[in-house]
Amino acid sequence: MAAQALTGCCARPAAPLASLSPSSRQYSSSAHISRPALLQTSSRRSSAASSRDRATLQVSAFQIPSNKWWLKSAPPNVVHINSVQQLVDTMAGAGDRLVIMDVYAPWCAACKALYPKVMKLVEGRPDVLLLAINFDENKTVVKAMGVKVLPWFMFYRGKACKLQEFSASSKRFHLIEEAVERHSTDRCFLASSDEEPVLAEFPKVMPGKGVSSSSLDLPHSPKPQPQPV
């Protein structure tokens, strides 16, 4: 599957132009040579050198970190998604809990900066479930979800489907806090048929056998209550 293009602060930059390569400049300066054979050879060498330059720059710019920051200090109400089926099963088992889908990438600096704040938030809110989705390892999911900016957050609640989605950063962390408070309020949900898809983006993927709204083995505790004045 072709890699999906991203826009925004964590977009992967386009490959450098061939004209930026020292080898390319060397051969372009020899354009006055009239013999076709020499021109053809120069063009091939310039193209090969430019390809090597692009490959080197791309590897150095997006080399995956070895410390795996995205796996550190995750509370028990954080689930790392590895497939479409796991995503559907987890959503089906979440019941009426608020579910946050956090789409990140190991090479995304904004994702890394935001990670500790998000983990601290969900640790203090065991009534909230966070699904961490690695962009590089879940291309089918992110393509169906229409994700084009990282980090990207989507909020779901029971049968109400998607409530809100947006991109955030460390400086805009308050948007996540406000969304959690807004969508965590008590509410009633109408019963629906088991034949309905859990996620509209994957209408043909149904929960596995034995998966229900009470089958998700995660800690449950009442959300913080306001103190009387």
UniProtKB/TrEMBL annotation:
GO term, biological process aspect, one: cell redox homeostasis
UniProt-listed Gene3D superfamilies: Glutaredoxin
CDD domains in the cross-refs: TRX_family (cd02947)
Region annotated Disordered, chain positions: 208-229
Source organism superkingdom: Eukaryota
InterPro entries per UniProt: Thioredoxin-like_sf, Thioredoxin_CS, Thioredoxin_domain
Pfam family, one: Thioredoxin
SUPFAM superfamilies, A to Z: Thioredoxin-like
Domain Thioredoxin: 53-185
Homology family: Belongs to the thioredoxin family.
Protein name in UniProt: Thioredoxin domain-containing protein
Species: Chlorella vulgaris
Taxonomy of the source species: Eukaryota, Viridiplantae, Chlorophyta, core chlorophytes, Trebouxiophyceae
